[in-house]
Design goal:
Number of helices: 12
Distance between the termini: 89 Å
Low-confidence stretches: 10-20, 180-192
Structural class: alpha+beta
Number of strands: 25
Radius of gyration: 27 Å
Shape: elongated
Length: 429
């Protein structure tokens, strides 16, 4: 009977203890320092370097593991003055340490919108139709969907390819419609989800960002780690060369990063090789070869920069199956000398239209019929320097060079040494 009475008393005290551990507000919320909060980087404890059960101190922005006594987060709250409010990086629950009670306050919703970018179907449709400007905490305005990306060391090709793929409407809608927030409320979920192309695309199109730029640091770290696990024999210099080259980066993305379903649905097509006895060849991108640069000077004793029209490079091909998005890659823009190991650049200028690129259909390739060619409009153009010039939903063009974003005229898109292009199929006029 005594044991039953003790159990009953314990059951009566337990809900009271839970109620005491929950507060709708907190007297320390004024110490939350939003300009210092940055969730773009790897979610890892700054003391123990573990990823499980990590919290962010909303006063200094550092990440710490645990919540109980003797954990890094608990110790940090005791050692630092006014560092009491912590938010779990996987489910967004807020706690006050060392008192260890949960905080329910609407003032922290803006922090959760940065930590977990979420989009409704109405917001996605609006982002596809109009340009939306937002304001960062420092007062600067930024265009949602065309924000600067931090340059990660030895990965200059990543930013340009990410900016280009973010123009593909169906792929972007797939990334934005997926929610990152946990519904199970598990406080020990160690799955790290700010290191994917999906989360990076969501941060680019998030109008609630505290800054007008974001960082692909955790995304690049994950890519490097995956390559090292799959190919331990690969040197760091080989991985650096992979992510410094926009074309090599694009090829890696289409093979290992972008979901295969969308690669097949959006980019895969079939070519008819007219100079190889009408041989058919499936493709995800069309490899085009530039003419070799001249070895000798012209009559004016100058090294003339050769030019070639894109239509001339596409003459040996016809589209048997036209993809919705056409990727063109000038594969010999850079070449490596087998003996000296030096990399040389082909300076040939390619002239191309921004609208209505015509590519002949296979039905008319070997006949006299007047079958309409396929028409494509340019969405993104990456030059040899790694700059990506992209077309926004409002029809304006923006040149992105890491953190720098500038609006340019459509006539300026064709001036550089193009390396990779993404076109969208349109109805023939």
């Amino acid at each position: 009977e005594k044991r039953r009475q003790q159990q009953q008393q314990h059951q009566q005290q337990q809900p009271q203890a839970k109620e005491e551990k929950v507060m709708k507000s907190c007297p320390y919320l004024s110490f939350v320092n939003r300009p210092l909060l940055d969730f773009d980087f790897e979610k890892r404890c700054s003391v123990s370097l573990i990823q499980e059960n990590c919290y962010c101190c909303l006063t200094c922005g550092h990440f710490f593991a645990g919540r109980g006594p003797k954990t890094p987060a608990y110790t940090h709250a005791l050692e630092r003055e006014n560092h009491f409010v912590f938010m779990h990086l996987e489910n967004g629950r807020a706690f006050c340490l060392p008192d260890n009670y949960e905080i329910f306050d609407a003032s922290l919703e803006d922090v959760r919108k940065v930590l977990f970018p979420r989009f409704t179907s109405e917001e996605i449709k609006r982002l596809e139709k109009e340009a939306i400007w937002s304001k960062a905490l420092d007062g600067t305005e930024y265009l949602v969907g065309v924000v600067g990306l931090n340059r990660v060391e030895n990965a200059k090709g990543v930013n340009s390819i990410v900016q280009s793929l973010a123009r593909v409407e169906k792929l972007r809608a797939h990334f934005l419609s997926a929610s990152l927030i946990r519904s199970d409320g598990n406080n020990n979920n160690n799955k790290n989800e700010n290191d994917t192309l999906q989360s990076l695309c969501q941060r680019i199109w998030n109008k609630h960002n505290f800054r007008g730029h974001t960082s692909p640091d955790s995304f690049v770290r994950k890519l490097r780690k995956q390559i090292k696990l799959a190919h331990p024999e690969k040197l760091e210099t080989d991985i650096d060369n992979l992510f410094n080259d926009p074309f090599a980066t694009l090829r890696h993305f289409l093979t290992f990063v972008v979901p295969k379903k969308y690669v097949d649905e959006l980019f895969r097509g079939e070519l008819l090789m007219l100079n190889q006895k009408n041989k058919t060849q499936p493709f995800v991108f069309v490899p085009l070869k530039l003419p070799d640069a001249p070895l000798f000077r012209d009559v004016m004793e100058k090294n003339a920069i050769p030019q070639v029209a894109l239509a001339e490079l596409l003459k040996p091909f016809a589209l048997k199956t036209a993809p919705e998005y056409l990727i063109l890659a000038f594969v010999n823009r850079f070449s490596k000398n087998q003996f000296t190991k030096e990399v040389s650049k082909n300076p040939t200028i390619v002239t191309f239209p921004v609208k209505n690129l015509k590519i002949q259909a296979s039905s008319a390739a070997g006949s006299n019929s007047n079958s309409n060619p396929f028409s494509y409009d340019l969405l993104a153009n990456v030059d040899s320097a790694g700059k990506a010039t992209v077309k926004h939903v409002d029809g304006n063009w923006y040149e992105t060079n890491d953190l720098f974003v500038n609006e340019v005229l459509a006539q300026q898109v064709t001036l550089g040494e193009t390396y990779v292009q993404i076109y969208k199929r349109v109805a023939s006029p």
